[in-house]
Structures are given as C-alpha cells and as structure tokens.
Amino acid sequence: MSLNDTPSADRLHIGFFGVRNAGKSSVVNAVTGQDLSVVSDTLGTTTDPVKKAMELLPLGPVVIIDTPGFDDEGALGDLRVKKTKQILNRTDIAVLCVDAVKGLTFADSELIEIFRQKEIPYVIVYNKSDLLESVPEPKENEIYVSALNKTNINELKELIGKTAVLTEDRPLVSDLLNSGDTVILVTPIDSAAPKGRMILPQQQMLRDILDGGSMACVVKEDAVGEMLVSLKEKPKMVITDSQAFGVVSKAVPDDIPLTSFSILMARRKGYLESSVKAVAALRTLSDGDTVLISEGCTHHRQCGDIGTVKIPAWIKAYTGKDIKFEVTSGADFPDDLSKYKLIFHCGGCMLNEREMKYRKKHAEDCGVPMTNYGVAIAAFNGILSRSLSLFPDLQKLVD
C-alpha cells in the first residue's frame, strides 16, 4: 500500500489550534505547501475544521486539520468551538499557533490545559515573528516562525516529528497466522454493499493476510460450504461479516475457528476486551431504556441498514423488551451519555486509535457499557464463545 493509499484512520492526525487571527491557517498553508485554508485579516475566517490527507516528512502519511478560533463568540461561535473540541478527541499531536506579538492569551492557556488533560503531545508556534524586534529563545516545545516569510517552517516540521508519539501499527489478523495458512473471508454482497468495491475492513483484512505471507479465499455467505469442500486442507480460520454470523456458523465445522471483521477491528482499536465485558448488559435492559448505536463512518442509509434497522430488531428480539434507539455517525458522539443504558459501536475502521480510546474512556467515565457490533451479533446468534476462540483469555469471560 502506498502512502497516498493509507486510510485516514491509520494516519497521524495533526491539529492546528489557537485564537482567531493568530495565523493558524497561514501556518497550515506554509507547513503543507498548499493553499489549504483561506487566509484573511477578518476574525473567524475558518468557520469549520479543514482537513487534508497528505505525506509530511519526516512523519509520513498524516491528516492535517485546521480548526476555527478557540475564542470565537456568539451562538455560531460556540458551535465552532464545540467542533474544535471534537477534533481534539482525534488529535495525535496538537500545534498551538500563537500571535508572537500578542503572546499567550487566556484561550491559549485553556487549550494547553486540555492538551495536558487529554495527554496530547503539543508544540507552541509563535507566528508573525517577523514583526518582533528581537526573537526570544524558545523553550523545548516552542518555536518562532513567520508563515509570511516561510521562516523556520522546516524546523517546525522537524519539531512536530520529534514531538509526535507514533502509535504501534497493530496487525488485524496476521499475528495469528503462519506463512502459508489459508483464511476464508466471507463478504456478503447485498443492497447495502458499495457498488464495485469492498468495504474498508475487508480490504484491510485481505491486505494484512497477504502481507503476512498467508492466503485468502473470498466468498459470499452462501458459498462457504462449497469452498470448504474444495480446499485440500482445513483453513486456519474463517472471518465473516458479522451480519452473516448466523448462516456462516452453521456452514463452518466447530473445529475451525470462526470470528468476524468487526471483532478483529475492535481488537486492533483496543476495545475488544471491554466490548466482551459490556455485552452482558444486554440482559439488564428493560422496557423504555435507551440504547445508543454509534458508527464511525457516514454513509447513505438504505433499507436493511445494519445500524438503524438490523441491530435494533436483533436487540428487541434478543431481549424481548421495548427499547428506544438513537443513532450517531461520523464525528458525532454525545458528550452526555447519562440517558443511555448501553452503547453499540461499529468496529471503528474510519476512526483513529485516539478517537476510539476517547470514546471507550468517555463511556467508562459515564458508567455506560459500550460493546461492539461483532461481539453483540455473535451473542444474538448464541456463538459468542466460539467467535472468541482465537482469544482464550477473552473466551473465559463468557464461558
């Protein structure tokens, strides 16, 4: 996979923050070498976060995010500040842009405190240094630049690179395989499947298997049995779309490990164990309880959509209770979770690790259990223990 093909969720997210007219957008444009953001002397020119996936040396593939001013005012300003706070939940490294002439403001100090609370590595960039009579000696995580004159821009990139804490590139499944192993991937093709392509988790799983020197056979759910018969040796495992768990589990013998894309994605994102523990909350739901269904991607909802149709129907059938449902997608994840009894979350393939860690911790802090699509659907089909056979320690939690 080339750097340009790296999914957004696997890129380092670099957020540029600061007050209005500190020169955030000018610094962003200087760092990227592109007119990514509109630059103006008018306060509040950047009204929405602006994102750009690119390669930034020495870091490699990144997502650059320019945010609205953190000191924005009024009703619209409050909404813009809220969006900026949402960006903080997925920021791997923060760049605080400060007007070198005016110095740190109260809003800048607020941002620094948020960086520290969220344990986000950060650098402070004093822009407009060309307007200073003399440039002070910067501290360890500080630098003086002039976006106008391109002064110290390369040095800023180097500082960002030194400050960034790179996350471990966790495999999806290759660490569970040996070279030459065969894996069957079950990918249903229905009305919700994108035309002419596979969805991201399927693409990533296939690539991870091939990179590890193993072999993959890709079939639809109605061809699993035929594929098993055609193979000379048993496959190492079968990985299915969670929606097909019921059909596939009947076709695959018990001595062949069976799991799902969503379960393996949750493991990669670091919230599989908590999802397995949380699924027990299904048994505690009562009439009138509200369940949140949250997806990291935004897509056109169709008849039979998993988040808005299938999972609510499965939950009602499994619990026998009259449950209320709310659905969020993309960057939306409620600040107030108090009204929810349980959260169902997708695998998170479109969200970076920091965003998923934030959602997991936020749910824990609010005392609301959060489970995963694959884990829950396995439970609905009575095969949760079997779906976790690749992870004996987790399997013990449900046996």
Topology of this protein?
Blueprint: E1 12-18, H1 24-32, E2 50-56, E3 60-66, H2 74-88, E4 93-99, H3 106-117, E5 122-127, E6 142-144, H4 153-163, E7 182-186, H5 200-211, E8 215-219, H6 224-230, E9 237-240, H7 245-251, E10 258-260, H8 261-269, H9 272-278, E11 290-295, H10 306-319, E12 324-329, E13 340-345, H11 353-365, E14 370-372, H12 373-380, H13 384-387, H14 392-395
Parallel strand pairs: 1-3, 1-4, 4-5, 5-6, 7-8, 7-9, 9-10, 11-12, 11-13, 13-14
Antiparallel strand pairs: 2-3
Structure description:
- The chain contains 14 helices and 14 strands.
- With 399 residues, it is of the alpha/beta class.
- Helix content is 33%, strand content 19%.
- It folds into three domains: 3-163, P-loop containing nucleotide triphosphate hydrolases (Rossmann fold, 3-Layer(aba) Sandwich), CATH 3.40.50; 174-264, Rossmann fold, CATH 3.40.50.11420; 276-380, Rossmann fold (3-Layer(aba) Sandwich), CATH 3.40.50.11410.
- The protein has a six-stranded mixed β-sheet, sandwiched between helices.
- The protein has helices at 24-32, 74-88, 106-117, 153-163, 200-211, 224-230, 245-251, 261-269, 272-278, 306-319, 353-365, 373-380, 384-387, 392-395; strands spanning 12-18, 50-56, 60-66, 93-99, 122-127, 142-144, 182-186, 215-219, 237-240, 258-260, 290-295, 324-329, 340-345, 370-372.
